[in-house]
């Protein structure tokens, strides 16, 4: 609150015998930043935290449902892991615009060449040979690198006995 005396103003202005009245100047009130329906309610920090977590859970759940089910149905994409007639087993890029694909379609293995706007059947592959090569690749991928094998087989060195 600001208090102003007219006597002090009168002396500063050079007026003699002025009334010594006191004027009060009221400072403006700053409005509260909360909505009017919550102004009277006593909202604790715990309640705000619980409400925020519930809303966050609803947002995450709705995003999951929309992306997982709505988008698939809209775009006609089937769920991963379903029985498929066509599987792309391997893709080998030749350059930025061309690639070779090994595809299993209806029990047959096909070698397909892909370019900008075209796919071409290059050859039908022997089923037994492809399955043999895939089994070898799986076995080779399970072996450890020589460095890792050496580190795992390395026996820990015994510490020298302490002198007392």
> Would you report the number of β strands?
6
The shape is flat
| Beta content | 15-25%
Total helical segments:
5
> Kindly, what is the distance between the CA atoms of the first and last residues, rounded to a whole number of angstroms?
80 Å
Side by side, the strands of the main sheet go 3-4-5-6
Q: How can the largest sheet be summarized? A: 4 strands, antiparallel
SSE string, helices as H and strands as E: EHEHHEEEEHH
Unreliable sequence segments = none
Query: Mean pLDDT, as a whole number?
Result: 74
- Kindly provide the radius of gyration, computed on alpha-carbon positions and rounded to a whole number of angstroms: 40 Å
Helix content: 40-55%
**Helix/strand/pairing category:** alpha+beta
Describe the structure.
- By secondary structure, this protein is an alpha+beta fold.
- Among the domains are: 44-75; 86-143, no CATH class.
- Helices cover 41% and strands 23% of the residues.
- It contains five helices and six strands.
- The protein has helices at residues 6-13, 36-39, 45-75, 127-142, 146-153, and strands at 2-5, 22-25, 86-93, 99-105, 108-114, 119-125.
- The strands form two sheets. A four-stranded antiparallel sheet has the order 3-4-5-6.
- Strand 5 (108-114) and strand 6 (119-125) form a beta hairpin.
- The protein is flat and about 95 Å long.
- It starts with a strand and ends in an 11-residue tail after the last helix.
